[in-house]
Specification:
With 361 residues, the chain is α+β, with helices and mostly antiparallel strands. 57% of the residues lie in helices and 15% in strands. A hairpin with a 4-residue loop joins strand 1 and strand 2. The radius of gyration is 34 Å and the shape is rod-shaped.
Length: 361
Amino acid sequence: MFNSKYLSRLKLFEKVNKKILAVNPTLPPSRKEPPSSIITVTEYNSDFSRVEKNIKISDFENSVGENKITWINVDGLRKSDVEKIGAMFKIHPLLIEDIISNGQRPKVDEMKDIIFTLIYMLNFNQETNSVETEQVSIILGKNFVLSYQEFTDKNLFNNIREKIAIKESKFRSNKADYLFYALIDAIVDNYFVIMEKLGERIEFLEEEIVQHANTVTLTRINILRKEMILLKRNITPVRELVNSLLRTDSLLIDDKTEKYFKDVYDHIVQASELSENYRDMMMNLHDLYLSELNLKMNEVMKVMAIVTCLLAPATVIGGIFGMNFSRMPWLKNPEGFYLAVAFMLLIPVVMIYLFKKRGWF
């Protein structure tokens, strides 16, 4: 019978493999639609700010205006809601399809008077010690920002809403492009939190390998290595995404906001390099595991070789006196048995002394 803990690790390993290999964007979405979407509308300008949660789509149909910034955040991707909001803001059907689809690569698209970005938010599940991905789509338009989050139970943008409520914050004195930057920056900064968690797991695994490596340790190494691949696959394309925003000629992004995107670019470059370093560390952990395994095997073989050498004299002596010759020394001697046993014990003791003197063990 297999150990249930080991089987659970195998299931987790299989789950991680599926997350990495299931990257076909042409397939229909495999996610289960939530029963309802949670829509939060934030409106603000230099004089006021207002947040309304759990509202209906019909309630903000005419909420976008020239004298305020409107941020509509949708938690939970329901096709009908995404299509209704898309029709309201005249979002291209291809972009709506990208919002609903699975397995898209992080990217940025410019169509007419909007900028569309698709990026992945990462979350660390404490129960399974694994990295979970959440697809986030952000659309920048004139005086409005639309953000679509895949799940309803995770939200990284609450801190931004709190800052918007502060009258002296930069949000209140800037246009919608600053909010657009802040959402991307929050996702990128969270990458470092996830990598810190994974770094702690790497340190734990390194200690475990040195102290008591076993087959379960190898399973953990492989699972963590898959997590690193997942991390790198979601972080690396964001570098190209932010670089595209820096090179854009769109009038939706002011020149004074460009310096903020340069800061995000520096952060994502650092995150990408750090993820590469973590992947190298995982390869080193795998090599360390094999080295420890070989070292233990060598120790076992050395002990077995020593035992074999120590038993060899007794085997030889017993073999000699066990031969069926009629004339043999000490065959009739009453002390012969004791002398043979004494030699069998004395010779291994001398061998142990010589082995110690040579430093063989």
